[in-house]
Amino acid sequence: MAARGGKRAAERSAQIKAKRAKLNSNKTPQTERKTKTVSFTLDKEEASPNSRENIISVPPPVSAGKWTNKERVLVFSSRGISFRTRHLMQDLKTMMPHSKADTKMDRKDKLFVVNEVCEIKNCNKCIFFEAKKKQDLYMWISNVPNGPSAKFLVQNVHTLAELKMTGNCLKGSRPLLSFDPKFDTEPHYALLKELFTQIFSTPQYHPKSQPFVDHVLTFTIADHRVWFRNYQIIEEDASLVEIGPRFVLNLIKIFQGSFGGPTLYENPHYQPPNTHRRMIRLATAHRQKERQMVKEIRKEKRSEEQEVMRQDVTDDVFLTPADPKPAQIQLEAPEPQGQKKKKLSELKKKKLMKRKGLR
Fold it and tell me: Residues near 248 by Cβ (< 8 Å), separated by ≥ 6?
């Protein structure tokens, strides 16, 4: 039974190969294709078979539509990402038809495992989002498996659903990449430019892509950061309308290998988010200490006793000097104190006698 099944499978494969050979023999190669002539007549003129002025020659197509650039980008993340990061990943996947997805990677696994995941998924580029402390988001851009790779801190993330921009583009269309002139001034920016072009540019004649160019991806450098924007090209006046998403990439390091290896460049202007938050806490604590010191100074001022004026300067303003009185000289000796007491006792007796009516 097994031998019969093997014979049938071999016969089927031989039939399929014969059909493919017939189809390929019927096709004309690219070099043998000739130009086509198309004749047309204007509305006012009459159709004349001998008129050669209304004949146009159409050249053959430049390419047979072969998909030669086989760039595949793996877009996935680690566990613990927020809802905004998840929506950003989904926006990038819809924007890049040559991307692939995978399940979230465990936190305990090392970053070298990403190279194996890319190899299993048959991808030669990778965008990996790494979340730490449920608030910091890092993005790795790597050329698998030989490198180089770059690590960024993602800031100011705004997704398509959050922005509600007026622009719109066809799903799967090829973008134009616009880079700031500063990318050509320094070597590390030139390396990032090459990475961005290989990852974000949709390959020509990709099966999931559309043969249209209707949006622009811009990468600008400001404040030592890379600002990403997505704009739609309007056909009427060739103006730009933002679609989204938008985010800012703060470069940390560029490595020679994929997700590791010797460091090629380290950003001296990079400030980790932990130190940034620590500086904010210290600034708030310093302001609180200053407020407390001001309160204590006010309390001390209120509790201090006000100095009492011993002599008011304005008291003697309306005083006039009085006439001097002559000094009185006492010539007689003063009466003894016992006689005063006797007189007082006699007066008391008389008052008591009056009250009782005896006198």
Answer: 154, 155, 156, 225, 226, 227, 228
SS3 state of residue 214: strand
Task: State CA 196 to chain mean position distance.
Answer: 19
Q: How far apart are CA 96 and CA 171, in angstroms?
A: 9
CA dist., res. 110 & res. 91, Å (int): 26
217-249 pLDDT, tens digit each: 999 999 999 999 999 998 777 789 999 899 999
Q: Cis bond leading into 145, ω under 30°? A: yes
Rounded distance, CA 101 to CA 103, Å?
7
Residue closest to 244 by CA, chosen among 132, 84, 137, 135: 84
DSSP state of 181: G
Which pair of tokens denotes residue 332?
């007689």
Amino acid at the residue 322: A
Rounded distance, CA 181 to CA 200, Å? 18
- State the Cα–Cα distance between residues 100 and 208, nearest whole angstrom: 12
Strands (E), 42-135: 55-58, 73-77, 99-101, 125-132
Q: How far is CA 271 from CA 25, 192, 251, 266, 267, in A?
A: 63, 20, 10, 12, 9
Both tokens assigned to 192 = 């990032």
Q: Read off the pLDDT of residues 157-166 as tens digits, 9 standing for 90 and up.
A: 999 888 888 8
Q: Mention every residue, 6+ apart, whose C-beta is less than 8 A from residue 212.
A: 170, 173, 174
